[in-house]
Structures are given as C-alpha cells and as structure tokens.
C-alpha cells in the first residue's frame, strides 16, 4: 500500500506562483509514474503533468506547458509541481497520484492511476 500526502496549495493572485509537494510513503518503486491531476467544481478530473521515476521523463497537458514544471526527488519519494504565471482558470483541487507500472496503459487519465492523495486546493484570484 502507498500513501500520498500533498501540501503547498493556497490562494494566489493571477500571475503568481505556487509549488505543490506530494510525499509518497509505503511500498514505493522505481517503476512508478507520479502524476498531478486537477478538478474544478462541476468539471471532470483532468491530467496536468506526470514524471516517470525510472528515467525522469516528464509529460504535460498542453494548457500548462511553459508555465508548470514537474520534478521529483527520488531519495525523498517526493514529487513537486511548480506552478508559475497562474491564471484564474487554474483554480481547482490538485491531486497527486501514482501509477504502479509505467510500461502499460497511458499516463493521461485518472483510471490509469492506482493511488491518490487527498487533494490540495489552489485558488487563483483575478
């Protein structure tokens, strides 16, 4: 079993920055993919970014390319999401997730992932 604990959300003005952290504990593995998703009120959960532990390859949704950066610290089993130039439409609950096996399926859908954090609210004011 794997537990995920997120931190770093909050309220920020448009154009500002926030960094989310997600610490994994329990039975982790270098075969994992760690991803970030977000869900705004009334909308479906959507993919934001992912990182593959085995080779640090990263994957991004088009709407965050150039603004958000995902990175990981293998020694701490922690993944980060640096969010710059935030927009009001980035307001959502952000979730981190783990996909146990990197070589099957995709990285872009919630059903691809096996474990989830509790979510962290990010609010961007205009």
Kindly list the characteristics that best describe this protein.
51% strand; 126 residues; seven-stranded mixed beta sheet; mainly beta; four-stranded antiparallel beta sheet; 11 strands; single chain
What would your notes on this structure say?
- This protein is mainly β and 126 residues long.
- The chain has no helices and eleven strands.
- It has strands spanning 2-7, 10-13, 18-26, 33-39, 46-52, 58-60, 68-73, 78-83, 92-99, 115-116, 120-125.
- Strands 2, 4, 5, 6, 9, 10 and 11 form a seven-stranded mixed sheet that branches. The protein has a four-stranded antiparallel sheet with strand order 1-3-8-7, with no helix packed on it.
- The radius of gyration is 14 Å and the shape is globular.
- It starts with a strand and ends with a strand.
- The model has no long low-confidence stretch (mean pLDDT 94).
In short:
Helices cover about 0% and strands about 50% of the residues. With about 130 residues, the protein is mainly β.
Which class of secondary structure composition applies to the elements? mainly beta
- What's the mean pLDDT score? 94
The H-and-E topology, N to C, reads as EEEEEEEEEEE
Distance N to C terminus = 40 Å
Shape: globular
**Tell me about the biggest sheet?**
7 strands, mixed
Strand content: over 45%
Q: Tell me the total number of β-strands.
A: 11
Low-confidence stretches: none
Specify the number of helices.
Answer: 0
Radius of gyration: 14 Å
| Share of helical residues | under 10%
